[in-house]
Amino acid sequence: MKDTPNKESYDIIVAGAGLAGAAAAWFAAKGGVSVLLVEREKVPGYPTRCAEGIYFKDTDIEIPQDCIAKLVSGLVLHAPGGEELIFDNIGSGAILHRTKFIQYLVDNAISSGAELITEASVVAVQDCLNHQKSQGNTTISSDPIEQRSVTIKTADASFEVKCKILIAADGIESRLGELAGLKTKLSTSEIEAAYQYRICHPGIDPDRLHIYIGRDIAPGGYAWVFPKGDFCANGGLAICPDLAKGKTAKEYCDNFIKSKFPEFFGCEGETRCSIQDPVAGGIPIAVPERIYSDGFMLAGDAARMVNPLTGAGIGTALFSGKNAGIIAAKAVKAGNCSSAYLKVYQQKWNKRYGSLHKTMLILANKAKKMSDTRADELISMLGQVPSEARTLKSFFITLLKNKPSLLIKVTKSYLFGS
Amino acid sequence: MKVNFDICDRCATCIAVCPVSAIMMDIESLVFDEELCTECGICVISCPVGALTAESKQDMKRVT
Predict the structure, then answer these.
(1) Residue A32: which region, alpha, beta or left (left: phi > 0; alpha: psi -120 to 50)?
(2) CA atoms of A351 and A209, how far apart (whole Å)
(3) Structural domain count of chain A
(4) Partner residues linked to A194 by β-bridges
(5) Which positions in chain B touch A49 (Cβ < 8 Å)?
(6) Which residues in A have their CB inside 8 Å of a CB on B?
(7) Fewer CB within 10 Å, N or C, chain A?
(8) What stretches of A92-144 show up as alpha helix (H) in DSSP?
(9) Per DSSP, what are the bridge partners of residue A222?
(10) Residue A417 within any structural domain of the chain
(11) Backbone φ and ψ of A15, nearest 5°
(12) Domain membership flag for residue A126
């Protein structure tokens, strides 16, 4: 892997070779423009800070079979008091081999003509040439910038590289949005702190997602066990730091696994039993505001494109990366990289996910405030609904309206997606 | 701010929540801008592994 760009100027620079960035680089390169993809890690896709679940109706890029770890047939919701509610109408989904999938996207980007540099970060973005726009002015400039100058830092050097459009897909920690004048700051109530292990045990349910809720298990969030095949799973949780009473996500996660899966401990040496690959992570719980500017686009976690209730961000990262790449390439070819041209990107996002994520944010805030007693009541009531009419949508509507009678009316299968 | 690099997982949650953008991810490690840091402690409570601890600014200057 190399860490120095070949050229001084590209049509498009993409910061971050995760799902959104690799998809953006692929579809921009496919659109016939020059693309530089900049990745901080040595190899794109590592480590996997993700539970790896996706719903197929959310996939805008076809996922190769060898990147799918396990197809999922249902979901078991575990109430704080221990009651289990089974949902078998959740639509089709899967747990991915996410790292492998990112490598697939990056390979496609490279074979379409994109250049990849690794162990390098985009640390700054400046306007250059005829830029007259005043600070904080969100109106469309009559004299848009023609290029942006981007600073790329490696372990021992720093480069200035020019581009017509910078696509910032550098994850939750992205500061490029702010540097380009957009609002991406998160408060502690707009973030979930997460921790996860790869757990393997013969007792793992190989077919269903398991979700555990409860103030003592995962305050302001939930714990999950998502099967990956071969009796292994991603087992972890996310918590709201404001509600965590001074404990870390790792402490909650260790307690969760110890209390729910005591059989994992003391089984060392047995085949097919292990707890390994711990990863920490942050999940943005917000809805994207403005995601474009002159010669600038935000995608994926950097744009806060995560379902605020479920924390699911793979489908939205693929959607935003693909569309950002396509639109950016068209803008370059049209010779117009102004915000007026790039606005269509925001419109596409709003149309597909805008109102859904706003609703999910309202639900997430309600769920955060819900007591364990209320959660037990809701789950118990939902348990009385025939299983074929029992959907997650019915659960969420009950949660939103606080009217269990509505459950009866809700029969359509629906999950987290659009 | 003091970082325990033995347990820091470089997940960058602290960077996302820092209200004054005082934290940077370097290729190898986290870097705090002591001039900007207000010791508000938001990064400390948000860290999934508890790798951050607040110190007085004077202590920090002595350490670095």
Answers:
(1) left
(2) 29
(3) 3
(4) A238, A281
(5) 11
(6) 40, 49, 119, 121, 123, 153-155, 171-173, 175, 178, 185-188, 191, 193-195, 241-242, 244, 246, 248-251, 278-282, 284
(7) N
(8) 98-111
(9) A238
(10) no
(11) -95, 115
(12) yes
Token look-up 């089974």 returns A86
> Are A82 and A149 in a shared domain?
no
Query: Is residue A270 within a helix (H) or strand (E), and if so which, with residue range?
Result: none
Q: Read off the pLDDT of residues B13-60 as tens digits, 9 standing for 90 and up.
A: 999 999 999 998 876 778 889 899 998 999 999 999 999 998 755 444
CATH code for the domain of A227? 3.30.9.10
Distance to chain A for B37, nearest Cα, Å: 16
Q: Summarize pLDDT for A269-325 with one digit per residue, the tens.
A: 666 788 889 999 999 999 999 999 999 999 999 999 999 999 999 999 999 999 999
What amino acid occupies position A75? L
Cα A95 → chain centroid: 14
Q: Residue for token digits 């995760």? A: A18
Looking at CATH, the fold of the domain delimited by B2-63 is given as: Alpha-Beta Plaits (3.30.70)
Is B46 close to A191, i.e. CB distance below 8 A?
A: yes
Q: How far apart are CA A222 and CA A381, in angstroms?
A: 20
Cross-chain Cβ contact A280/B19 below 8 Å: no
Which range of residues forms the domain containing residue A390? 361-412
Structure-block tokens of residue A103: 């490598």
Question: Chain A contact for B64, CB < 8 A?
Answer: no
Which of A331, A354, A377 is the endpoint of a domain? Answer: A354
C-beta separation of A288 from A317 below 8 A: no
pTM here is 0.90
The predicted complex's ipTM stands at 0.86
